[in-house]
Amino acid sequence: MRLLFVCQTCGCHYLVPVGLDYPDGGRASAVWCSACQRAAVDRGATEPAELAAVAVLLAVRALKAALAARPAPAEDGRPARPDRRPSRPAISSRGRTHPAAARSRLA
Predict the structure, then answer these.
(1) What are 30-39's pLDDT values in tens digits?
(2) Residue 107 counted as domain residue
(3) Domain count for the chain
(4) Residue 66 in this model has a pLDDT that exceeds 70
(5) Is residue 15 within 8 Å of residue 4, measured between CB atoms?
(6) Are 45 and 24 within 8 A, CB to CB?
(7) What is the spatial distance between Cα 15 and Cα 36, in angstroms, rounded to a whole number?
(8) Confidence of residue 93 (pLDDT cuts 50, 70, 90)
């Protein structure tokens, strides 16, 4: 799962790459979405370091809470689904396609 941030200017939720670094070498903001970050750079504003640290801390705390709320996985490693009943044994695909007495009547 990835960290989810809230833009401090427009209030939208946005995802950033892991490590806050874009593939093109740019640095993502923990305070502003990409549109608001571009507007802040255009007007010469810098990202407040204290606000960025608090935003990262809150995003990590929310991620940990979301992971703690997930149900524990089953023995086979798949997540438990309370809305499904246990699986049944597999049915053989080579089952009979005709009645058992049909062969005896032909003989």
Answers:
(1) 899 989 998 9
(2) no
(3) 1
(4) yes
(5) yes
(6) no
(7) 14
(8) low
In this structure, is residue 53 part of a structural domain?
Answer: yes
CA distance 86 to 73: 14
The alpha carbon dihedral of 15, 20, 22, 26 has a sign of: positive
Rounded distance between C-alpha atoms, residue 57 and residue 61, angstroms: 6
Which residues pair with residue 13 across a beta bridge?
6
Residue 88 confidence (pLDDT) above 70: no
Query: Does residue 83 fall inside a structural domain?
Result: no
Q: Residue 60 falls within a domain, yes or no?
A: yes
The pTM score is: 0.54
| Amino acid letter for position 63 | L
Gyration radius of the chain's alpha carbons? 28
